[in-house]
Design a protein that fits this description.
By secondary structure, the protein is mainly alpha-helical. The protein has a single domain, classed as Orthogonal Bundle (Arc Repressor Mutant, subunit A). About 75% of the residues lie in helices and about 10% in strands. The protein has helices at about 1-35, 40-50, 55-60, 65-80, 100-120, 125-145; strands at about 55, 80-85, 95-100. Strands 1-3-2 form a 3-stranded antiparallel beta sheet. Helix 1 (about 1-35) packs across helix 5 and helix 3 packs across helix 4. It starts with a helix and ends with a helix.
Length: about 150
């Protein structure tokens, strides 16, 4: 029993990794249109989901060094995807905010990923798609709880 469980864990992790890589690879094709790197896009994802963040907070969420995140934000700012703004309550604090162009890139790349996923899933029956969704929701909930 233990060996079967371990084998399943190995296979589940492998499949999740392959799926994530494939979806990201498809999204990278869209990134090239905007001359944006995957780490820069990861920053846009975090900023779009979390709102304005300091570079320190962003670097923690990206798991990157502060200096690396500063360079990344510099490039995003030069491309007009984000802007740095002083916090109105504490002028010493500088926050990174997504600009309309950054929002547009975020949406277009995610839409490209979703379109690819839809093309893969469209040949499956609705009950199968619902089952996949339920299993992924359960797995996500269990991972979030830990």
């Amino acid at each position: 029993m233990e060996s079967n469980f371990s084998d399943n864990v190995i296979e589940i992790e492998r499949h999740l990794r392959r799926i994530a890589v494939t979806v990201r690879r498809r999204g990278r094709m869209s990134l090239e249109e905007y001359s944006i790197t995957p780490p820069q896009f990861d920053a846009l994802i975090i900023l779009n989901q979390s709102g304005d963040l300091t570079i320190g907070d962003l670097s923690n969420r990206l798991y990157l060094a502060y200096s690396t995140t500063t360079d990344l934000v510099d490039r995003l700012e030069r491309a007009s995807f984000v802007v740095r703004q002083r916090d109105p309550d504490d002028r010493r604090v500088v926050r990174v905010r997504v600009q309309p162009l950054g929002q547009q890139v975020y949406e277009e790349v995610l839409n490209a990923r979703r379109a690819y996923l839809a093309s893969v899933l469209e040949s499956l029956d609705e009950p199968v798609c619902n089952n996949i969704l339920q299993v992924l929701q359960l797995l996500n909930a269990r991972m979030t709880d830990r």
